[in-house]
């Protein structure tokens, strides 16, 4: 994925690597990845992330459309749907995070993984959960795109 991120940066020099407050979905959701980025820059964690580069690039629908057009592709269809996965319990959400946060937690001693994940999920919950029932819910958007040569 770092190859793709590097390629996208060279194709889209206008694309910022700074975290944004929304993921471009239809309801302005906070991205879990942006929260991970915020947390890893905290004093407690930043020493483990010297020279760290954000490992993935995610584009808002408008950015994706512009990228496709710059690559001489025609956007036939671009659909965005807000989704949510309710893990029901914190241990289940932590298990998902262990598998998903690999690019970040590999920069930490294994003994610190759970503390880092807890910091991220606590911050994410404070931003993304609209009520206590959403404490272990991951909100995201799914973008499906159909392209043809222009």
What overall geometry do the principal axes of the alpha carbons give?
globular
- H-E order: HHHHEHHHE
| β-strand amount | 15-25%
Task: Work out the helix count.
Answer: 7
Helix content: 40-55%
DSSP E strands, number: 2
Largest sheet: 2 strands, antiparallel
Question: Radius of gyration in whole Å, from Cα?
Answer: 17 Å
How many angstroms does the end-to-end distance come to?
26 Å
Q: How many separate domains make up the residues?
A: 1
Order of strands side by side in the largest beta sheet? 1-2
The pLDDT mean sits at 84
How would you describe this structure to a colleague?
Helices cover 43% and strands 18% of the residues. The chain is α+β, with helices and mostly antiparallel strands and 150 residues long. The protein has one domain. The chain is globular and about 50 Å long. The two termini are 26 Å apart. 15% of the residues are buried.
């Amino acid at each position: 994925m770092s190859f793709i991120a590097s390629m996208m940066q060279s194709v889209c020099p206008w694309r910022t690597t700074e975290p944004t407050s929304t993921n471009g979905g239809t309801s302005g959701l906070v991205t879990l990845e942006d929260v991970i980025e915020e947390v890893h820059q905290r004093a407690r964690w930043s020493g483990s992330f010297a020279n760290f580069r954000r490992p993935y690039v995610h584009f808002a629908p408008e950015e994706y459309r512009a990228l496709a057009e710059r690559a001489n592709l025609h956007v036939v269809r671009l659909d965005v749907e807000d989704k949510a996965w309710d893990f029901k319990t914190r241990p289940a959400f932590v298990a998902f995070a262990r598998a998903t946060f690999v690019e970040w937690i590999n920069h930490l001693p294994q003994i610190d993984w759970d503390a880092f994940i807890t910091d991220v999920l606590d911050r994410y919950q404070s931003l993304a959960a609209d009520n206590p029932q959403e404490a272990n819910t991951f909100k995201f958007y799914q973008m499906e795109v159909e392209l043809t040569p222009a």
